[in-house]
Amino acid sequence: DAMVIQNPRYQVTQFGKPVTLSCSQTLNHNVMYWYQQKSSQAPKLLFHYYDKDFNNEADTPDNFQSRRPNTSFCFLDIRSPGLGDAAMYLCATSRDLAGSGEAFFGQGTRLTVV
Amino acid sequence: AQKITQTQPGMFVQEKEAVTLDCTYDTSDPSYGLFWYKQPSSGEMIFLIYQGSYDQQNATEGRYSLNFQKARKSANLVISASQLGDSAMYFCAMREGLKASGTYKYIFGTGTRLKVLA
Fold it and tell me: How many beta-carbon pairs below 8 A join chains A and B?
């Protein structure tokens, strides 16, 4: 059973039209991450939550926002998508403990901007 | 800052043969974790194997093993007996501790695309 679920798998949005991507988890992990992955590139961290504490990467554009209403859900809001925001968006979770602590990823949402 | 380098953009391997995917890293943190993920064309990142910086032995998980050479700062992935289903993108990643938030983030290399030939 999938433990990190992203919806939708594919999203097409118009240039400048706000769009929201969602992520849910059944692992009860404290930490949730949003990564942006453009074609043939490494995933790039946009921000993460540690419980309700929001941590933004310094180079994440203001166009990208996030909400985490509870432990299970996290949303990525793109306020005014541009053509350059077309990418795969990956949600991940991890525990806040040392040890192996791998990140668990969802299937991703592939965003197309037209 | 921590950095992951994967110098092989693409690799081919014959089915049932072994293949090594290279990964080097740079960090000043004495405690770190190294990971390998597989990303098929469907997009999901699948965790394969983990190596902690203090682990004395190389990690193994089924057909996957990690050749950890700490002095050289390398963490190469070895896939034995390649299968057609192994064709995918492979990412090496490092976990970086974040003092401000008390948690970790994962930084990734640029990946190696592996194609297994029948």
Answer: 71
